[in-house]
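Go through this chain for my students:
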Amino acid sequence: MKNSTRVQFWGTRGSIPRPGRDTLRYGGNTSCVQVTSPKGSLVIIDCGTGAHDLGHSLVAHASGPLRGSILISHTHWDHIQGFPFFSPLFVRGSQWDIYGPAGLGQSLRETLAGQMQYSYFPVTLDELGASIRFHDLAEGSFEIDDVRISTRYLNHPALTLGYRLETANACMVYACDHEPFSRTPGVSTPIHENDRLHSEFLSGADLVIHDAQFTDAEYAAKKGWGHSPVEYVAEMGRLAGVKQMAFTHHDPGRTDDDIDRIVEAVRSEPRKTDDTLQVFGAADGQIVELKRTGTNQGGLGGRSSKSAAMPAIKDSLVIMGVADAGLAVALAEAAVAEGVRTVHVSDGARAMQLAKTDTPSLILLEDQLPDQDGLSVCRSLRSDPDRRLSDVPIVIVGKQERSSEGMEAGATAWLTKPFSIQYAKAQIQAWLMRSACRWMRAAVPSDEESRLAALHDLSILDTPPEERFDRITRVAAALADVPIALVSLVDEHRQWFKSCVGLGVNETSRELAFCAHVALSRKPMIVSDTLLDDRFADSPLVTGGPRIRFYAGFPVFHDDGGCLGTLCLIDTRPRQFPDATIQLFADLANVVQQELNSSPRSVAVSS
């Protein structure tokens, strides 16, 4: 269909591949979906065993190297086991961007490389022919060509993202794997707030592809496994006003006839006259063409304006107000991660004192503490005039959730016992990622390989100071009346200063670098007040030394077009400059650029 969004299923099975005579119609491959936008952008969601056939199909029909993007929901094996067998990754000249949830331990790249170690696979990740860029994600939004993508954490024992893809003419949501936040089969209860938020993420979609591994009858014995009963999925679809709901992640024990019976049972449920939801079982090879006839008003709960780039979690503090020693040990184990510090107290009074004197990223409170209950502590913290305490996530840990009381007290969420360490770890990671840490790492530029090659070819990194650069930074600092001016070159893992006025170090990590954002955008970046900018307000370079409040970075380019770094100006107070002065700074950056691109012979003469 012309100008449509095309969705094709290549794998719809959950947990383990299930080839056989009784799975021919719905298929035996694990999760993999292909989405092609109206302008031809290729987006693949999950890379289970279905990626094998998809890859061969793409290569067979390609006239040259391929370009595309892969969205990984999470790194459980059934969602990534086809990655090493995806043939386009072996084609030299092809370009692939891989996106997935960033945990507090390994990066997405490290996890995918792990299953390609020699013990498991004969070809390593570094030996693949295609150019591959990895992007660690949290909740938020980003764009791939003409596709706008929003992400939301799902309820699963591993950190898992759902994806909402919107094009000019359609909207689809992929939510796999996900479990209800609160559901007792056969018991009618008010919808849980987190389930309502989940329905908002699905709201108004033309197609939702949703985990439906169980039925209600099966789910009663499988709570905590991280999967949904089909009845819940249909309820969420109707609540969200979804047009089509595709049941996927079929249990490996399901035959084709089993899936038919489950789908028919949902279709035959008594419905209201205005219920227009269409449901079907997703099948390998099935194609759905989406072309919206009306306007989508999908509800993302205001999350769509936030970038999905991995937020900074270094120096995060988790305060635990927990009296039960065994529970405290379990929670401390679940919170273990590089850059995350935990502090444990056993009563509510000390938990409140710590929260007020330090800057916690997350507070975990046992429901019943010796001196007061966790909700009382939560209520006191929320009523404190300190704005930090109104925003910090506060999670109540107890045997039974008291939803209405928790909402009244300002609790962010509940962690109900018993729970597995894996589940608690995933939830703690999500709460930390969602916390008000306003600091964003710059993504990797699309031309990163050629950019770094050009930088290294200059043979300028780690060379001694040179007057031809130092005089430029001195003039820039004097012209702007700022204490710090730098010529910063953005290397693979660091930014290195070829010239430095007013700063006692010659490099910082790239993760901290303001200049890495300029290298990505290739445009001047002026931050008049860092405390008012969500990209930098909680950066260690803002909250600690050198306490940056103003930043102005002007890109400098290699002759081949790659952005090498910046001429940047830094102050410890907010600043604004007229356009004419900004142009002078840009002119100085052009002088830096000329010097960087000078031949070795010219350098020797000029210095």
In short: The longest helix spans residues 579-596.
